[in-house]
Every structure is written in C-alpha cells, then in structure tokens.
Amino acid sequence: MNDGLIAGVDEAGRGPLAGPVVAAAVVFAPDYRNAEIRDSKKLSKARREQVSRLIRENAIAWSIGAASGLEIDDQNIHRATLAAMRRAVLGLRC
C-alpha cells in the first residue's frame, strides 16, 4: 500500500441471527470529500445503491471481506468481525 493513504473499514451484519458478517474497506485520496457518503442506515435502498456506485467510481481502492455464519459460531461475533475486516483490508490493491 502507498505511504500516506488511510483505509476506512466498517462492518455490516453483526445483529442478524443467521448469515455472514461483511466488512468493506475503502481508500480515497486524502483531499477527497463528499457529503453524500455517510451512515448508510440513514439512506433509502435506492440512495445506498447510488452512493455505492459513487464510492466505487471515486475510490483509489475498495474491497469486501466476509466471515461466514460457521465462523461466527466457531469464533464468536467479535473475532469473526475482525476476520472479515482483515480480509477486506488485505483485498485492497493500491
């Protein structure tokens, strides 16, 4: 990874009773700003799709990582979340 770049990482899926926990990592140019990119829980599904496209088009790099329901059961939700985040970060290509 290039020096001076910072990846933002967040997860989704910690609350469900079944299914995976998924994490995304994204890197923007240090001077990139966009007020539309904020908490996805506050956006409609259609708006989330638009913002997702905006992120993919403007990011230096982005990646998604996941941990399965079996991993959650075997490791606990905290460790599985960290594994998903680690996979997302390791998938970045910049």
How would you describe this protein?
This protein is an alpha+beta fold and 94 residues long. It has a single domain (7-90), classed as 2-Layer Sandwich (Nucleotidyltransferase, domain 5), CATH 3.30.420. It has three helices and three strands, in the order E-E-H-E-H-H. It has a three-stranded antiparallel β-sheet. A hairpin with an 8-residue loop joins strand 1 (7-12) and strand 2 (21-27). Helix 2 (69-75) packs across helix 3. The longest helix is centred in the middle third of the chain and has 14 residues, at 45-58. 19% of the residues are buried. Its cofactor is Mn(2+); Mg(2+). It is an enzyme of class 3 (hydrolase). Residues 4-94 form the RNase H type-2 domain.
Short description:
By secondary structure, the chain is an alpha+beta fold. The protein has helices spanning 45-58, 69-75, 77-90; strands at 7-12, 21-27, 61-67. Helix 2 packs across helix 3 (77-90).
Task: Tell me the major beta sheet.
Answer: 3 strands, antiparallel
Number of helices: 3
User: What general outline do the C-alpha atoms trace?
Assistant: globular
Annotated CATH topology: Nucleotidyltransferase, domain 5
Task: Please report which band the strand proportion falls in: under 5%, 5-15%, 15-25%, 25-35%, 35-45% or over 45%.
Answer: 15-25%
Mean pLDDT: 91
**Please, how many domains?**
1
Number of strands: 3
Distance separating the two termini: 5 Å
Q: Can you give the helix content as a percent range?
A: 25-40%
**Lateral strand order in the biggest sheet:** 1-2-3
CATH superfamily: Ribonuclease H-like superfamily/Ribonuclease H
Low-confidence stretches: none
> What is the CATH architecture assignment?
2-Layer Sandwich
Structural class: alpha+beta
Order of helices and strands: EEHEHH
Radius of gyration: 14 Å
CATH class: Alpha Beta
